[in-house]
Write a structure and sequence with these properties.
- By secondary structure, this protein is mainly beta.
- Helix content is about 5%, strand content about 40%.
- The strands form five sheets. The chain has a four-stranded antiparallel beta sheet with strand order 1-2-3-4, with no helix packed on it. The chain has a four-stranded antiparallel beta sheet with strand order 5-6-7-8, with no helix packed on it.
- A hairpin with a 2-residue loop joins strand 17 and strand 18.
- It starts with a helix and ends in a 22-residue tail after the last strand.
Amino acid sequence: MKLSEVYWTLLIVGLALACQREDDEVPVIESPVSSIVHHNPIIKDKFTADPAAMVHDGTVYLYTGHDEQEIGTEGYLMKDWLVFSSTNLEDWTDHGPALAVSDFSWALRDAWAAHTVERDGKFYWYVSVEHRTVPGKAIGVAVSDSPTGPFSDARGDALITNDMTTAIDSYWDDIDPAVYIDDDGQAYIFWGNTACYYAKLKDNMIELDGEIHEVEGLVNFTEAPHIHKKDDQYYLTYAAEWPERIAYATADSLTGTWKYQGIINDYVENSSTNHQTIIEYEGQSYFIYHNGSLPSGGDYRRSVCIDSLFYRDNGTIAPIVQTDEGVESIR
């Protein structure tokens, strides 16, 4: 068969097949589906803020404030604190409100930033509130036999009141408590706004043990001190400036001298505040913070996020990369 004959034969067969398929369904080519899962913010059905976290018996427990302010209204509306837990950092169990301002008879309002630690099988939750009779903010402590509560006032009165701190003349310098138990068993509490304070705690975890001291060496300290340790180095992270970024300092002991190391978390989306906690879980460090990225979120409607934290070889912390994806499930 000649080449021209082959050409015409193939053309006729092709036309016949086309006519045969004319009424057939046209194949649909599906668009690629994104495999990216947006984990941040990690809680999407309510507004959470001022995170604190701890690892206990293989579970991460997350303690947060609860923003309830209406859209377009200014000011913090916070009545209680929430608890969540996870074993994979992707799926979070909501344990509901486990502590409220109303659980402290001496407190008036404002369930502001708080922090929880475990000691000898009990869980101590240190909170910031407005005092009912002593003008200014104050710090209280609640206790429970379970990391998810219920919690109750451990003292019946405030642990720290505004008249106990005199480094500056401020109505709200007694907020944002963070407690760290050192390797020798001595517990310390850090707190403050504009001035950063620390003091020892007695073994019962509900009384101060000695004088209140002011932390020195922190550049542009605003609030939200947090202590963690990596190898032999202590790290004090905190919110700096306004709007806030997270800075940090390092020291060889909890009493200082603290050396400023710079900014590790830049401004966050849609929120002037920037509040952090740092944990290590199954060999990886995590930076937990809040922003205002949920729909209708903002300064008074914030949401907790998690991203990975990495150390350089010299022990300094690499800048946090804020992501929508968050961290992958570890299971």
